[in-house]
């Protein structure tokens, strides 16, 4: 065995580790890791197993703070082999001891930093990167909304003023209309992107509260007023004014908004949408274009659609129904879609 410094010898004595428990020594100066000792020999590993252990231990050592002693009570060395792992860092070398005696009762916490968690696995690192991506997209989507909304307001003012001037051609008017519609579409997608990333960031902790469903519907209707007026669509409310629900209102409102918006978008002009709310369920029904069985199956499987024009000013559902599906799953509400092409769609949310 390599001649070890006093700090390593003392640690061995305190924790009843013999030289046979030595797994490897890592040289800080040249970055070489040397597997050695009876513990390693008794594993009877082939070349592939040896390389895997060397890689795992090297990554572990690199991830640790220098100058400390670390103890991992359940370290997965390889396959089904778990062990107590002791890592002692000195100025020049890192000493790694292993003990597979899971009943060992002689561990001391003296001068030891206990670390119950191993370094992040690839899966954990990926989850952390995805969370950072969602945070970035959430910030971008949120910051985009204000300038887009301001541009829409500006175009609307220009549109109203230009249309009062004689001599403006129908072609020029159509161009202005198209610009405004595309900006509204861009704002819609930005909102949905914001909802999508916000959902990923907020589903860890639901904030339950009791609220009036009538007030929530009224708020959603006000938000969708322009879209309703553009298509001259009315909403028939069948709701008891005293009805209230207890759930995460923010997520619930996000889902209801998306469902009503889709009902408006996929209904012809001059139509009616019926919304019925009871303690046990909510139903949103339209007489719109409907959804084919093929696309219904795709929606249930979580597919995202491209932004294809369906008819007139209507566009594919994009993120909307996927956001809704994920919200109701997180709230543990059953969510059903019944639809026939050319006849319309009925959405049922089962509250209890």
Task: Give the CATH architecture of the largest domain.
Answer: 2-Layer Sandwich
User: What is the count of structural domains?
Assistant: 3
Q: What are the segments in which pLDDT stays under 50 over at least 5 consecutive residues?
A: 101-118, 306-318
Write down the CATH class of the largest domain: Alpha Beta
**Please, what is the oligomeric state?**
single chain
Strand order of the largest sheet: 2-1-5-4-3-6
Query: Termini distance?
Result: 67 Å
SSE series: HEEHHEEEEHHEHHEEHEEHEEHEE
Number of strands: 15
CATH topology of the largest domain: Heat Shock Protein 90
Shape: elongated
Please tally the helical runs, counting DSSP H or I stretches of 4 or more residues.
Answer: 10
Outline of the structure:
46% of the residues lie in helices and 24% in strands.
Structure description:
With 352 residues, this protein is an alpha+beta fold. It folds into three domains: 6-119, Beta-Lactamase; 121-202, Helix Hairpins; 204-352, Heat Shock Protein 90 (2-Layer Sandwich), CATH 3.30.565. It is built from ten helices and 15 strands. The protein has a six-stranded mixed β-sheet with strand order 2-1-5-4-3-6, with helices on both faces. A hairpin with a 3-residue loop joins strand 10 and strand 11. Helix 4 packs antiparallel against helix 5, helix 5 (170-202) packs parallel to helix 10 (320-331) and helix 6 (213-223) crosses helix 8 (249-265).
């Amino acid at each position: 065995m390599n001649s070890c410094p006093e700090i390593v010898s003392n640690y061995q004595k305190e924790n009843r580790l013999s030289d046979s428990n030595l797994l490897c020594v890592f040289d800080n100066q040249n970055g070489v890791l040397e597997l050695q000792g009876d513990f390693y020999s008794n594993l009877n590993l082939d070349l592939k197993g040896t390389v895997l252990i060397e890689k795992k231990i090297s990554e572990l050592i690199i991830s640790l703070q220098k100058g400390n002693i670390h103890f991992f009570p359940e370290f997965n060395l390889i396959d089904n082999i778990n062990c107590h792992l002791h890592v002692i860092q000195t100025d020049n070398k890192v000493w790694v001891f292993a003990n597979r005696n899971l009943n060992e009762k002689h561990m001391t916490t003296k001068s030891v930093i206990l670390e119950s968690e191993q370094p992040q696995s690839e899966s954990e690192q990926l989850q952390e990167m995805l969370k950072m991506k969602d945070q970035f997209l959430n910030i971008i989507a949120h910051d985009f909304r204000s300038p887009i909304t301001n541009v829409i307001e500006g175009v609307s003012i220009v549109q109203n003023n230009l249309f009062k001037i004689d001599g403006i051609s129908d072609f020029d008017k159509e161009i202005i209309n198209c610009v405004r519609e595309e900006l509204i579409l861009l704002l819609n997608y930005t909102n949905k992107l914001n909802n999508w990333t916000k959902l990923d960031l907020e589903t860890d902790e639901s904030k339950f509260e009791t609220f009036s469903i009538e007030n929530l519907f009224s708020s959603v209707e006000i938000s969708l007023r322009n879209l309703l007026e553009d298509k001259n669509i009315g909403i028939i409310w069948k709701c008891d004014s005293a009805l209230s629900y207890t759930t995460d209102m923010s997520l619930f409102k996000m889902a209801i908004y998306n469902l009503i918006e889709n009902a408006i978008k996929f209904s012809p002009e001059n139509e009616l949408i019926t919304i019925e709310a009871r303690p046990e369920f909510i139903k949103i029904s339209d007489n719109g274009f409907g959804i084919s069985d093929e696309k219904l199956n795709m929606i249930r499987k979580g597919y995202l659609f491209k932004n294809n024009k369906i008819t007139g000013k209507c566009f594919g559902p994009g993120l909307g129904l996927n956001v809704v599906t994920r919200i109701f799953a997180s709230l543990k509400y059953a969510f059903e879609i019944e639809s026939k092409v050319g006849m319309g769609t009925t959405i049922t949310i089962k509250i209890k």
